[in-house]
Automatic annotation (TrEMBL):
UniProt source species: Kineosporia babensis
PANTHER family (alphabetical): GLYOXALASE, GLYOXALASE-RELATED
Domain of life: Bacteria
Gene3D superfamilies, per database record: 2,3-Dihydroxybiphenyl 1,2-Dioxygenase, domain 1
A Pfam family matched in the record: Glyoxalase
Transmembrane segments: none
Name assigned to this protein: VOC family protein
Amino acid sequence: MERVTGIGGVFFRSRDPEGLAAWYEDHLGVTPVPLTYAEEPWHSQSGPTVFAAFADETDHFGRPAQQWMVNFRVRDLDAMVRQLRGAGVLVEVDQEVYPNGRFARVYDPEGNPVELWEPCATLP
C-alpha cells in the first residue's frame, strides 16, 4: 500500500493572511508560501507526525468553534519558549513530561492554538 510521506501543507482561513504569515515566520521560523515556482518552500526536518481526529466535544483546541490545531516539532522546547517570551508572546508550558515528549501552547494573533512539541529522545 502506498502511504503519504508527511504533511505537505496546512491551509486555513485568516482575517489578515500577510500579517499572520509574518507572525509565523518571525516567531516560529515558518517561511511564507513562495510567490513563484523559482522560490523554495519551507522545508521541515523529518521526524514523527501525528494525524489524529478528536471528538467533536474536545476542549483540546480551545474555543468550541476551533476546528483545527497545528502541532510543530521543536528541537529545544526551553529555547523556543525563551525566544517566544522574549518577543512578548504568551506561552503555556505543560509541566508534565509525557512518554512521547514535552509540550507548550501559544496562540497566534488570530487566536488559533499552536502546539509545540519536543519529542522525547527515544523517538526518531
